[in-house]
Amino acid sequence: MPDTSQYLAGRTLILVSNREPYEHTFEPGSAAVKVRRPPGGLVSALDPTMQCTRGTWVAWGSGTADRDTADAAGRIAVPPEKPAYTLRRVWLDDADIDGYYLGFANSALWPLCHMLLQHYDMRQEYWERYVAVNARFADAAADEARRAPNAPVVWVQDYHFALVSAMLRERLATERRPIFLHQFWHIPFPPPDILRLLPTAAYSGVMRGLLGNDLVEFHTERYAQNFLDCVDEFVPESRVSRDARRVRLGDREIHVGVFPISIDAEHYESLARAPEGAAKAAELRTKYAADGACLGVSVDRVDYTKGIPERLRALDQLWTEAPELRRKLTFVVVATPSRSELRSYKTLEEEVVAGVKAINERFGDEHWTPIVLINENVDAAGLASIYRAGDVCLVSSLQDGMNLVAKEYIACNVDEQGVLVLSRFTGAAAEIDDAILINPFNVDGVVAGLRRAVTMPREERRARMQRMRRQLRRATIFDWLDAILARVDELASPPQEIRGPAERTPLAPAESSAA
Ligand code: ADQ
Asked: Which of 261, 294, 324, 454 counts the most CB atoms within 10 A of its CB?
């Protein structure tokens, strides 16, 4: 793990994200409290940085015991076993969760950013809640910035908080302390023709909110250029330099950067190599890929962006067209429900279960189940053994900011025999050179890609996987973090002065009428 303490010298890092790094919950039916660390690479990568910079992490206090363990301001020192930084919790009630999280963030922005318009559902109240919750996070971050012993660097995560940076800049405008604001956008950024489907106040607010940052970060050049196109179109008083990826707004300069996120490759590799990982992988192969048969794997949250029904359609067609692959190719599909409160997600869960059942009835028999569906949460060690066992990993996202599953598969493929079949609409496809690229909307193409994967000569498989593994080792999540912090260091020094009120970036008011 690279040493990130060389950056942010004399500065305090304030991180803002929807999910918190430590969640306190009551044990069912008792007053005993347990601490949960949400799984995921981002928290594991950022937690050590927070520990060494002794900053503050502002996040939604989502645990049942979160209020009981924090002080009146929602603050608690973490990690619990060896406190090194502050977690500042922001409280959301059910109406906030419905309007801000399930509503504007996940029913409006999420489908638009993934250009899947049939799932777009927009209500005025969603936007109003989103503005209100973003304001509450900006208040909490402003309070933390005032408490910070050093010049604060604020790092906002994702599409839940498009307005926070501009709001925060406004709140701190009268205090002449240097501050640097930046934001990572984890999902695709759409072109103007898609973003304009939001009401005018909302698309204008989102763009002006993001321009409250000094640096806006994306996974790929395409998302960065889409963002610059939207700035050009929706913020007419700005000046956009596409080549330099820069925006001039009043006397401020906003930089746009490309930083493809990655994984802790060593960690995944060690899970796959561990004796339990190896044993579990061998067990999977004995069960589903004995006698030279082939094992396909896929891993996703159940989300319409991941192309799961499209994948099932392709498998159906594959076993129809290539009867010789029946009993010779089994698929383990890990598809864990997420956002089940939303009807479109619940419907999709049912569609996936019914689709798998139909395929298994059509092609399976008493000795062979074509698709093994695992629709529960699997921990990282379990995933590592599934990845290790898989001869083919199919990622069929219709759109995906990056897709970390593709990289996890590469990290865990320690036997160097696997083939990655990857949707060209993932951020990962812009980076990974040796996958078989597919268009998930074209079922014939997916079938052709799968056939190519299962028949690929051993030497070609090995050569491709070796190259992908070398590429991944050079670009892990720590390299991502390192590159972003280095860029922040470069741009933030000498420290930028907080602008006076007259120079503020205007934020579209929540009450403006919907267009
Ligand atoms: P996600 O849409 O969640 O992330 P992805 O990048 O694939 O998509 O990351 C998912 C993570 O959850 C992976 O670490 C994976 O192992 C894990 N996971 C997925 N399905 C699981 C399951 N069924 N059981 C257990 N774990 C599972 C968003 C964007 C992506 C972007 C990331 C990071 O949508 O495009 O790559 O953020 O920026």
From this structure: 261
Residue 212 has phi, psi (to 5 degrees) of -70, -15
Distances in Å between the Cα of 490 and the Cα atoms of 63, 215, 248, 329, 510 are 37, 11, 18, 51, 35
Q: pLDDT grade, residue 304 (50/70/90)?
A: very high
Distance 347 CA to ligand 1 centre (A): 20
Q: Per the confidence metrics, is the pTM higher than 0.70?
A: yes
* Spacing, Cα 334 to ligand 1 middle (Å): 12
Cβ-in-10-Å burial (0-12, 13-18, 19+) of 25 comes to: middle
Write out residues with Cβ below 6 Å of ligand 1: 41, 186-187, 261, 299-301, 334, 336, 377-378, 383, 400-405, 408
Q: pLDDT tens-digit profile of 482-499?
A: 999 999 999 997 644 444
How does the average pLDDT of the chain come out, rounded? 93
The preferred substitution site among 17, 297, 405, 426 for testing ligand 1, maximizing ligand atoms within 8 Å of CB, is 405
370-382 in b/e form (b: 16+ CB < 10 A) is bbbbeeeeeebeb
* Three-class secondary structure of residue 332 per DSSP: strand
List C-alpha distances in Å: 427 to 184, 252, 297, 422, 485: 14, 30, 20, 10, 21
Q: How far is the CA of 179 from the centre of ligand 1 (A)?
A: 32
The answer, yes or no, to whether the previous bond of 370 is cis (omega within 30 of 0) is no
Residue labelled with tokens 């005993």 = 32
The pLDDT value given to residue 508: 36
Which tokens belong to 75?
């603050």
